[in-house]
Design goal:
Strand order of the largest sheet: 2-1-3-4-5-11
Radius of gyration: 23 Å
Largest sheet: 6 strands, parallel
CATH topology of the largest domain: Rossmann fold
Strand content: 15-25%
Number of strands: 12
Helix content: 40-55%
Distance between the termini: 39 Å
Mean pLDDT: 90
Number of domains: 2
Structural class: alpha/beta
């Protein structure tokens, strides 16, 4: 190829790149909000959100407090509504706190979808996330298997979050057929992993009075804290069933301290969520505040199940390899 043809080819390539870069929905911005943005779970969601935005050619932002704070999440939502974005995804820490803010967004014409944790009493359009009841059932069945259908169980949760309550309901229903398994403690960690660490330490100190055979974690923070307590005290023979698949939890599974965890798909929740928000923004919904959940001909779903899976020692290495392949890390 001569230099004149090469130059023409380069100019054509530059023109095509420019055309493609301008082919997105310029001027549109979508916002993802959570109650704690620094944990690996939400970093994975942010990656999915960002990748979807890049594909669509839209602006995006991930906002919320660095550490768990439902009040600060509501403030982040209120600020987001004032900016009049093209759409909002939010994982709800406390539905009573954000209900009015979500309703104001809908009244302003801003589509709102909840992900990971829902606010069903609000006017949000629909929920994208895990079938949390089923995740609890899966964990409960594995727990019964691990402790051979007998023992005392301590549960770590945050009762303000509906998704965690659904997981607990799933666990309790799964354990109904095992009368010798007793849930003796339900600990509210309030978004603070130190509470999980301290509570586990106290339970072990009182071991002669009340032996805890298993620790169930309905959220991502407590599993690795309990694993640290057991490992530090060289205690064997206790079962830990965790939640989510952050790197430290997976390492404790490899070491045999955590028996299993229920992995979710935060990347998928945010990726699909932004694509659906974009469709809603460009769609022809006559109103955002209709009762779509009870409309047999609704143009939107009531719930999008992104799935979950059990990760244990039999598949943890493959799970880690797949994660590295996707993330490049």
């Amino acid at each position: 190829m001569n230099y004149r043809c090469l130059a023409a080819s380069l100019l054509l390539a530059i023109a095509l790149v420019s055309l493609l870069s301008c082919s997105g929905h310029s001027g549109e911005t979508y916002i993802l909000i959570s109650a704690t943005i620094k944990v690996p779970y939400w970093q994975s969601a942010a990656a999915g959100f960002g990748h979807a935005a890049e594909q669509l050619g839209v602006g995006y932002a991930f906002q919320g407090p660095d550490t768990y704070d439902p009040g600060a999440e509501r403030e982040a939502l209120d600020r987001a509504v004032q900016k009049n974005p093209s759409g909002i995804l939010i994982s709800v820490a406390d539905p009573t706190l954000v209900k009015d803010s979500i309703n104001r967004a809908i009244a302003s014409g801003i589509p709102v979808i909840t992900i990971d944790s829902d606010a069903p009493a609000s006017q949000r359009l629909f929920f994208i996330g895990t079938n949390n009841y089923q995740a609890g059932m899966t964990g409960g069945k594995r727990l019964a298997q691990e402790i051979k259908s007998k023992g005392n169980v301590a549960v770590f949760t945050m009762p303000s979050q509906p998704n965690l309550n659904e997981r607990l309901r799933g666990y309790l229903d799964a354990l109904e057929g095992y009368p010798q398994i007793k849930v003796v403690h339900i600990v509210d960690i309030k978004g603070d992993p130190r509470i999980a660490f301290d509570s586990a330490t106290q339970f072990l100190a009182n071991d002669k009075k009340e032996h805890i055979d298993a620790f169930v974690c309905l959220e991502a923070l407590s599993g690795k804290e309990i694993a640290n307590v057991l490992d530090n005290n060289r205690i064997k023979g206790r079962t830990v069933v965790a939640m989510d698949a952050d790197p430290e939890t997976l390492q404790w599974i490899q070491k045999g301290v955590i028996a299993a965890t229920i992995s979710q798909k935060p990347y998928t929740m945010a990726f699909v969520g932004l694509k659906m928000l974009d469709d809603l923004h460009h769609g022809e919904l006559k109103t955002l505040d209709a009762d779509w959940a009870h409309d047999s001909f609704a143009p939107v779903p009531a719930f999008v199940d992104t799935g979950s899976a059990l990760v244990d020692k039999s598949n943890v290495d493959a799970f880690i390899a797949a994660t590295k392949s996707l993330s490049g890390k």
